[in-house]
Amino acid sequence: MREVFQQELREVQERLVEISRLVVIAITNATTAFNESNVALAEKVIAEDPKIDALASDLDELAISIMALQQPVARDLRIVVSALRMSASLERMGDIAEHIAQLARYRYPEKVAQDRLLGVFEEMGSLDVIVAEKLSRLIETEDLSLADEIRDVDDRIDELHVSVFETVLSETWAGTSVNTVDVTLASRYHERFADHAVSIAKKVKYLATGEWTGAGVR
Amino acid sequence: MREVFQQELREVQERLVEISRLVVIAITNATTAFNESNVALAEKVIAEDPKIDALASDLDELAISIMALQQPVARDLRIVVSALRMSASLERMGDIAEHIAQLARYRYPEKVAQDRLLGVFEEMGSLDVIVAEKLSRLIETEDLSLADEIRDVDDRIDELHVSVFETVLSETWAGTSVNTVDVTLASRYHERFADHAVSIAKKVKYLATGEWTGAGVR
């Protein structure tokens, strides 16, 4: 029984890794589409999001069936419950990548981020990709140093998020209202994407060490 | 054993009702603070959010201990898993109420929504309160007609959300960038708040009927 359970836990982990890899692809394509006004790539992200949703839903069913059949307790139970939560957060990261792609599609052939904000969003986008890649490796390898790295990258994304507002609210900002609305939402999406990664990283760390360092995504 | 389990499920339900009532208070105060620029009320919402977070966290621990000790299967297991998810969504609704209160505090003594948007945000705010109240009653009574009512109110909130963007993006919009950023975020928060309620309502309905009508919050 115990061996079956361990094998099922590996199956859960593999599926989380699989979903996290699709999230890496989604955010890579979404931020590229956003920064380069590539509408075909944006539509690809939008078309592929249901696949992430379906895999997350399948994983939830697997986790629930493991609970029912294996009746895990203590740490084993927490692992399965955490998998449910990680699946929900990964699914949400996929949704946010889709939102970024939708913004790119709405404004095509214009770029959403222009002039001095272009560089800021390029950096935020590449950091979101790095966060997603580190998260995928963290789930796969359980190398906890990656959790700290994710938190550090998230700190930098938060700084950039604040700097977008400072730019938009400065006296010299000459963007249209459309542009102001777009970059406000875009910045929020980029920031939330990384928040979810931090939340998942905390869960992985907690499961490995028993130390809980916070109450997840705010 | 079965009787103990039923009693524990009632405890879970009572705690969900308790949290949902705090969410009603939070969104009532947050939207009032937002529409009236009442900074004291905004600070009250911000100060009280950790209580919602703590109750949600306690409820999660209770649900996990029920799984470990009672080893529920089939529908009973789904009820407990759903309670974990509802708790996460209610906690998030509290966070969003806090975000709305923070916007009110930042702009005090100015109002965030001005002129023609004031009425729109008053309506959105009162609809968010109605959604939260209906949700609380739905969790308490399991009267499923409330789930349909929540969905209908959410549809109206979505319309208002779109109308905020139409206003801000119209040629006659004369708001400053600060104002454009604020109302963009505020409208998004009001809309997301109701989305979470719809997601919880679907779970309650699913548990009662076995019919799943969607994949939750998008």
Topology:
The structure is a homodimer of 218-residue chains.
Chain A: H1 2-36, H2 39-70, H3 74-107, H4 116-141, H5 145-169, H6 177-209
Brief synopsis:
By secondary structure, chain A is an all-alpha fold. The first copy, chain A, contains six helices and no strands. Chain A is elongated.
Description:
Two copies of one chain form a homodimer. Chain A has 218 residues and is mainly alpha-helical. Chain A has one domain: Methane Monooxygenase Hydroxylase, Chain G, domain 1 (Up-down Bundle), CATH 1.20.58. Helices cover 85% and strands 0% of the residues of chain A. The first copy, chain A, has helices at 2-36, 39-70, 74-107, 116-141, 145-169, 177-209. Chain A is elongated and about 65 Å long. The model of chain A is unreliable at 214-218 (pLDDT under 50). Chain A binds chain B through residues 53, 57, 64, 67-68, 71, 73-74, 77-78, 81, 84-85, 88, 95, 165, 168-169, 173, 175, 177-178, 180-181, 184-185, 188, 215, 218, and chain B through 53, 57, 64, 67-68, 71, 73-74, 77-78, 81, 84-85, 88, 95, 165, 168-169, 173, 175, 177-178, 180-181, 184-185, 188, 215, 218.
